[in-house]
Every structure is written in C-alpha cells, then in structure tokens.
Amino acid sequence: MKFSALIAGLLLFIGQCDTDESATKGKCFKVSFINGICLEAVLKIEDPAFYEYGETWDGMSNVFMATFPCGTDWDLISAATPESGKTFYVEITAQPDEPTCVRCKATVAYDGEKRVFARATDSKCNPLP
Fold first, then answer.
1. Domain-by-domain residue ranges, the chain?
2. Residue 14: in which H helix or E strand, if any?
3. Which of 69, 87, 113, 111 is nearest to 32 (CA)?
4. CA–CA dist 116, 20 (Å, integer)
5. d(Cα 16, Cα 96) in Å, to the nearest integer?
6. Three-class SS of residue 23?
7. How many CA atoms, within 13 angstroms, populate the side-chain half-sphere of residue 48?
8. 94-101: long-range contacts at Cβ-Cβ below 8 A with a sequence spacing of 24 or more?
9. What pTM was estimated for this model as a whole?
10. How would you class 124 by CB atoms within 10 Å of its CB: exposed for 0-12, middle for 13-18, buried for 19 or more?
11. d(CA 33, CA 79)
12. How far is 15 from 71, CA to CA, in rounded Å?
C-alpha cells in the first residue's frame, strides 16, 4: 500500500514538471531572415543540427516563425537574408514580459505550426544590444 502511494506521489510530482520547455533552451543556432514585420519573422535554420525545430512551409524547408522582444535590432535581423549570405543567431525563450511594449498589429501570413519566442544573440548565446 505504501509503495502504491509512493508511486502515485511520484507520478503527480513528475506530472507537474514543465514539459513545454524547448529542447533548445540555452542553445543558440544560426538562422537567416525570410520574411517579417513588427518583430515577427519567418526564419530559416542554417545549422543542420537544429533542422528538427523547423518545418516545411511555403516550399521552404527548416523554417519557423519567431516573435522577438521589443528593442530587438530589426535592421540586423532583416538584413540577414539567404541572398545576402548574412546570418545571425537566435535562442528560443519563454514569452517575454513586456507590459510597456507597444507592438504594431501587422503580422506575417504564416500558417505553419512552429511558432516560438526568440531573442537575437551572438554565437555564444549572449544577447545582442
């Protein structure tokens, strides 16, 4: 009887763990900019080790939609297109708490399932200014 109660308690404890944490938390990976507006962007994963976090959308492989926090250097992000050969790094994050952040309502027409919050970083996961 005590064993059953212990197992039930353990399962209850495990069930309370945050299973929504991204497997990429604390890891940065190289991306390029496909399309975006108002701190939302469709990004293409350029690092094969992270392809599984993207999807095929609109004829492009290894892409996902990212929402960036206010203050993100949009010029740096939007200049990193596959055609330019430029890239940048992102880290998947939790939803930012930005109560004073004003965002425009425009959005990219992205009907894919892979949508995350992200921040632009350098190759060592340090946030960009």
1. 18-121
2. helix 2-15
3. 87
4. 11
5. 22
6. coil
7. 0
8. 96/69, 96/70, 98/69, 98/70, 101/69, 101/70
9. 0.77
10. exposed
11. 7
12. 36
| pLDDT tens digits, one per residue of 78-102 | 999 999 999 999 999 888 777 778 8
CA distance 69 to 124: 19
pLDDT tens digit sequence for 24-67: 566 899 999 999 999 999 999 999 999 999 999 999 999 999 99
Are 88 and 31 in contact, with CB atoms under 8 Å apart? yes
What lies within 8 Å, CB to CB, of 108 at 6+ separation is 35, 36, 37, 40, 41, 42, 65
Pseudo-torsion of CA 50, 34, 71, 73, nearest 10°?
A: 100
Residue 18: both structure tokens together: 């945050």
How many residues in the chain?
Answer: 129
| Domain 18-121, CATH | 2.40.50
